[in-house]
Each structure stands twice: as C-alpha cells, then as structure tokens.
Structure to design on (785 residues):
C-alpha cells in the first residue's frame, strides 16, 4: 500500500512537471482522428499499439474495406475507411479514394444500378437528395485530412470536383480549384478546368483574363500544357466577349 | 540470447516482407512502404525485447538467486539495478540498431534500383532521409528505455516472472494507448475529463516517440521536438529507475 | 578476552516475517546475541528452519533485522567496507551457468574492484588450488556438484576476505568432498581467517569448530567451546581409553554387576544437540 502511494504521488508529480514538455512534443492530429472513431475501442485503439506497423495495418484495413465495398455494406465501408485513415492519416490515396467511394459509389448503391440516372434527374427530388447527401458526406470526410496534406493540390482539387459534379455548387468549386492552383506541382489541366468553371458560372471575362495570364506562363516544350488548345480557347472566349487582343 | 536472435530474424524477415508484399501497398511510396515494415519491426519486436530482457536480467537474477552472491559483494542494490538496466537497454539498442542498419540497407538497395530503372530522382515526398531513419531508431531507443525502466520497477517488486512480464506488456499497451484514450474521453462527456486528466498524468505517452513521417523527405525534423522527447524519456526513465531502486532496496533476499 | 578483536557481533538480532494473516508474523531469529572472535572457526548449528540462513543473510545485508544489530569488525553489514571483507559461500550454487569458471571469477573479482592483472593471477591460483584448472574455461552449467562447491570456495576467496561465511558447505557433498572441506577450513584458520560455518551435519563439522552455537526456532540454546558444552551435565559418564580388550571387558562386567549402564561410544555433540532441541521443544509445548 505504501509503495502504491509512493508510486502514485511520484507519477502525479512527474506528470504535472512534464505536462508542458508533452504539449511541446505531441503531434495530436492522428490521436484525435483515432480517438474520434465511433465504437472503435475494440479495433482502432488496439491497433494503436502497433507502433510502426500502423501504416502496414492501415493498408490491410483498406484492403479489407474493399471486401465490404464488394458487397456494398455502407456502414462497414465507412468504419474501415475511418480506421485506415486514423492508422495512417498521411496516406493521400486513402483520402482521395475514400472520398470518391462516398461521393460516386454510395449514391448508386442506394438507388441501385438500374436507376442511377435518378441521381441527376432534377425532377426526382429523392434521387437528387441522395446525391447531395453523399457529396456532403464525402466533403466532411476530406475535411478530416491532416494539415500536412493541405500543402498538396489533390485535396482541394477533389473537393472542387465534388462541389462541381455532385453538389452543382460552382462558386465553391471555383474557390477549391483556385486553391488547388496555388499549390506547387499543380498540373496544367487544373487551370483549364478552373477557366471552364468560371465560364460556366457566367464569369466569362474573368475566365478570359485568367487564361491569357495563364497562357503567358505555359512552356512551349511541354505537351501536357496543351498550349495551342489554350490559345484556341482564349480566342473562342474572346470572340464571345467581342475581344480580339 | 535465443529469443533475441529469434526476434531479430523475425524483424529482418518482416522487413524483407516489405520488399516482397508490394501488392498490399496502397498509395504510399514504395520506399515508404518498406520503411513502414522496418519501423514496425523496431517498435513491436523492440518492445518485446525490452520487456523480456529486463525481466530476465532483473527478476531472473532474483528468481535463480544468483543475486545473492552478487549483493554479498560490495555492490549496492542501486548499482546492481543500474548495471542491469544498462544491460537491458544495451540489448535493446543493439536490437534496434541492427534493424535500423538492415532497413537502411534495404532502402538504399531499393532506391538505387528505382533510380536506375526510372533514370530520374525520386519525388521529394517519397524520398528517404536516411538520417530520419536513424532518428526514428534513436527515438525508439528512448521509448524502450522508458519501457525497460517501468518493467524494472515491476521486476523489482514481482514474486513471479509471469507477473513481471505481464505488467511490462500492460505498461507498454497502456503507454501506447494513453494518448488515444485521453483524447477519446475528452471528446466524450466533460465529466470524464478528470479521469482522463488523471490517467494522462500518471502514465507516460509512449506514442509520442513514433516519428514515422519524419523519416521522409517531405517532413523536416524539429530539433526542439527531438530534444523534448529525449528529455521526456529521461524524466520517466529516472522516475521508474528510482522507484525500482526503492523497491529493490527494501526487498528481502 | 576483553582485548580480543571481534570479527562478528550479533546483539539481540531478531527477524520477523509477516504472514499472510494480518498482524501475524513468524519469528525466524529471536534475540540472537553472540560474538565471534577474529581468527577462529565458529559453527552455527541447528536443524533445518532454525534461522541459520536468515542470520547469515542479515550478516550479509541481504535482509534487514526487525530488531537488534549485526556488525562486521564493528561495521554495519550494509557498508561497502564490511562486505569487501567477507567471502560468502551460498548454501547452493547460485551462479550464472552460461559463464565459464574463469569468467565467473572475473565477474566477482570485478565487483570487488580488484585490478585486472592481479585478478587474473588470483583467478588461476584459486582455480588451480581447488582442482579446477582443467575446467576453468568450461561453462559452469557443465560442472558436477563437487566442482560447483569448489568453485564456490574459489569465488568466496577471490577478494582475499578476512571472514568466510560458509552456508552448509558439506551439504550434498560426498564424504571425500566433506573431508576436503574440513581440510580447507583448517587451512583458512591457519591463514588467520575467521570462519562462520553453518550446518546441520554435526559430525562433519564438530572437529573443525573452536566454538559452536546451537540454534533452534531462532533461539540460541547453547554456545561456547565444544569441550565446555560437552563437559556440562552428565558427570557420571566416563570415557574409557588406554585399556586392552580383556581389561575393557572387566570394566564393563564390573559396571554391570553394580547396576551401571554401559553403551557403545557415540557422537557427543550430536547427542547434546538432540537433547537441547528436545528440551527446547518440550518447553515450547509446555508454554
């Protein structure tokens, strides 16, 4: 008993003393994601003891998720996705692939393969509601991605695509594409899609000015830049605007 | 020794698994995937070595009574414990060091093959910082030092090796889970905060030492964080070392 | 007597072990008081469980007294200096079986802080002296019981101690080995060492000891020189010596005619020991 009290008192004292140091060295993001999983005390928490094997375990969990995906078990798929990203939150692939499964596959599972057109039939309120609901769920999933991944263009690009294609929210899609453009290594097609979204949203002049500015930065020797295509599009939009400069 | 070799071989085999199980690799860079296997072997098998070696070196001496002729010599119990802890930690450091070297070798061979095949440098986010691998290994040594000291505390008190081993592994699991459990309580009902706060005060957070991402080119090291972790490990190792010495000092032989 | 240097002094030494039942304890050593002078052989004798090993452990600082004190040349057993002057032979070979005899000696010598060169010389000297020269590089785990006992003596002597504490040195050793132990103890005394010898095998040690103490249930029942202890009590017992067979028979016949009892010669210390233990047990039951 005396030993227990000595241990308790000493541990508490040291715990208080090292608390500031602990805050200094802690990287809380993955801890928060792992702890945030619902009903995961049995699996997520126990997998936390794996240490360095967590990333390996995350891959295996993702493969297991695809096992559930085959049978279209929504809850199990979501749970395993959460578990995998909690175990390895730095895997960009998990975030992008997971968001696509939620936004693209899950609405179809809900209405059935034969009736997937309902999702885009504006007269079918129920079908549209399913598409919007899953689109928003995919965005919420992406919002949990760690800050380190925000330096890359893929996450805002994926968000922009969901806003555009699943939610029909062009303003937010443009904002997200704009964010993706600011990241380093952003591919050339992001700029072209960004300009098209501006045009589609009625901001034609803005699109014209942007493309002209963008064209000036394009290299001549990189085929993926599609410089002639951009020049052609500038000319087309210019014609619409009655501009020829 | 046999267990040490068995775990070492298992660790190296696990590392080799990283090279040959690329079909399970989803999205992360190939080198990163291999490194994950190596890091996993260091943390998982390293923890087993730390617990078993410490119990064997401290409680094993008590159980086999080989401690009697030792303590009958002019050796204090504190010195005995310190010697045993240095021995246990040395064993752990050797184990982690050998796995780290095996990992660096595997990564270097694979990186050379990839560069030779593609003819270009590897993308910065997928490239390996070898210093980072060594840093990861060093942080594991720090973590395992804390675990060895906690196990020494239980070994000094134990009356059976089963108890000492069980408590060592229990401390390891609680230490690894501590951050998650506390966060989970914090995210739940506010009334549980006192429980979570209490737990976070009495149990060291061993997950702090898992610097997995720091080994890659994309993440730069924070020197302050490393110094902080060393300090953190030092404080807890000292606490449990002193508690173990106190228990051993009052133990009857 | 007052000027004699006391190597070991025990003053009211008591050891209680608490039992599982709250408030109850077992008294292993009960107010033990004795002195062992320098350069003597003291036999601490008693049956199993009489408190001999507990007393030794308190002398070595391995166990703390519940009351009273023990001292080695006036020093506490916890002190480094006291323990550097003691060589200890445990009651069983508690040695690391994965080391060779030479490595084990080196390990203990290093703990004693002996300089490397001197230590190496001493190791060889001791191992040769104890007949282990051919086995010194073999793992201790492969040694026979007798070899382990001899290795035990060698390790106890590696620091050239002033006091040797031998816990059951002849237990499990064959008669030849026991005789060797006897010769060795005598040689230690000649070298000026003090020997504390614990045993329950009285016949093997009684000729070696200058003084003995008889322990039972932690209590010292008797202590002193063997001849003094045996001289106490039965004055009517006579020792017959220097007669031929015919004369001896005449004495026996005479004694029997007068109603006397004649019995063959017996081990007197063992007799004394049994009598003391029996009386002590009877007294205990009476209380």
């Amino acid at each position: 008993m005396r030993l227990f009290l000595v241990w308790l008192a000493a541990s508490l004292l040291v715990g208080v003393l090292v608390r500031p140091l602990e805050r200094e060295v802690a990287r809380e993001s993955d801890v928060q994601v792992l702890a945030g999983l619902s009903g995961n005390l049995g699996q997520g928490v126990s997998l936390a003891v794996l240490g360095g094997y967590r990333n390996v375990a995350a891959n295996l969990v993702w493969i297991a998720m695809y096992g559930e995906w085959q049978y279209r078990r929504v809850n199990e798929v979501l749970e395993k996705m959460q578990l995998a990203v909690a175990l390895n939150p730095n895997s960009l692939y998990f975030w992008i692939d997971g968001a696509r499964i939620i936004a693209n596959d899950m609405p179809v599972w809900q209405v059935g393969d034969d009736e997937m057109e309902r999702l885009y039939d504006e007269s079918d309120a129920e079908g549209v509601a399913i598409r919007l609901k899953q689109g928003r769920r995919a965005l919420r999933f992406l919002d949990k991605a760690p800050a380190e991944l925000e330096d890359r263009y893929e996450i805002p690009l994926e968000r922009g695509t969901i806003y555009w294609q699943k939610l029909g929210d062009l303003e937010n899609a443009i904002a997200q594409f704009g964010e993706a453009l600011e990241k380093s290594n952003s591919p050339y097609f992001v700029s072209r899609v960004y300009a098209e979204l501006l045009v589609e949203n009625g901001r034609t002049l803005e699109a014209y000015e942007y493309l002209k500015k963008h064209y000036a930065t394009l290299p001549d020797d990189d085929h993926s830049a599609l410089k002639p295509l951009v020049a052609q599009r500038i000319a087309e939009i210019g014609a619409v605007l009655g501009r020829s400069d | 020794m046999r267990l040490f070799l068995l775990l070492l071989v298992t660790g190296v085999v696990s590392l080799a698994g990283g090279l040959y199980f690329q079909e399970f690799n989803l999205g992360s860079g190939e080198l990163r995937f291999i490194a994950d296997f190596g890091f996993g072997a260091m943390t998982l098998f390293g923890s087993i070595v730390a617990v078993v070696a410490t119990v064997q070196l401290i409680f094993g001496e008590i159980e086999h009574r080989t401690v009697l002729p030792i303590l009958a010599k002019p050796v204090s119990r504190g010195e005995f414990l310190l010697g045993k802890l240095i021995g246990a930690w040395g064993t752990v450091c050797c184990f982690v060091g050998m796995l780290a070297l095996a990992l660096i070798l595997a990564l270097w061979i694979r990186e050379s093959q990839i560069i030779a095949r593609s003819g270009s440098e590897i993308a910065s986010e997928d490239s390996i910082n070898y210093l980072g691998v060594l840093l990861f290994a060093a942080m594991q040594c720090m973590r395992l030092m804390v675990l060895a000291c906690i196990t020494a505390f239980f070994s000094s008190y134990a009356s059976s090796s089963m108890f000492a081993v069980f408590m060592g592994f229990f401390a390891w699991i609680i230490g690894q889970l501590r951050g998650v459990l506390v966060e989970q309580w914090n995210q739940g009902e506010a009334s549980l905060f006192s429980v979570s706060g209490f737990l976070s005060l009495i149990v060291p957070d061993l997950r702090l030492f898992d610097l997995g991402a720091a080994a890659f080119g994309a993440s730069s090291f924070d020197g302050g964080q490393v110094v902080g972790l060393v300090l953190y490990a030092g404080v807890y190792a000292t606490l449990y070392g002193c508690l173990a010495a106190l228990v051993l000092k009052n133990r009857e032989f | 007597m007052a000027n004699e240097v006391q190597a070991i002094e025990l003053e009211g030494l008591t050891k209680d072990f608490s039992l599982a039942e709250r408030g109850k304890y077992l008294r292993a050593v009960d107010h033990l008081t004795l002195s062992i002078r320098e350069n003597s052989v003291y036999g601490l004798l008693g049956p199993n469980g009489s408190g001999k090993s507990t007393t030794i452990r308190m002398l070595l600082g391995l166990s703390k007294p519940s009351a009273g004190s023990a001292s080695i040349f006036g020093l506490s057993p916890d002190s480094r200096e006291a323990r550097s002057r003691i060589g200890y032979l445990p009651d069983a070979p508690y040695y690391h079986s994965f080391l060779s005899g030479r490595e084990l000696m080196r390990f203990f010598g290093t703990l004693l802080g002996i300089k490397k060169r001197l230590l190496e010389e001493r190791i060889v000297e001791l191992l040769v002296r104890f007949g282990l020269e051919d086995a010194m590089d073999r793992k201790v785990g492969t040694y026979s019981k007798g070899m382990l006992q001899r290795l035990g003596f060698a390790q106890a002597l590696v620091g050239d101690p002033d006091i040797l504490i031998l816990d059951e040195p002849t237990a499990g050793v064959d008669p030849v080995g026991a005789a060797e132990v006897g010769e060795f103890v005598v040689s230690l005394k000649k070298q000026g060492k003090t020997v504390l010898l614990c045993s329950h095998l009285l016949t093997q040690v009684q000729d070696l000891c200058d003084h003995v103490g008889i322990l039972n249930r932690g209590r010292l029942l008797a202590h002193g020189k063997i001849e003094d202890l045996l001289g106490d009590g039965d004055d009517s017992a006579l020792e017959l010596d220097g007669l031929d067979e015919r004369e001896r028979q005449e004495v026996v016949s005479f004694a029997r005619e007068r109603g006397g009892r004649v019995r063959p010669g017996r081990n007197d210390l063992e007799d004394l020991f049994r009598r003391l233990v029996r009386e002590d047990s009877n007294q205990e039951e009476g209380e």
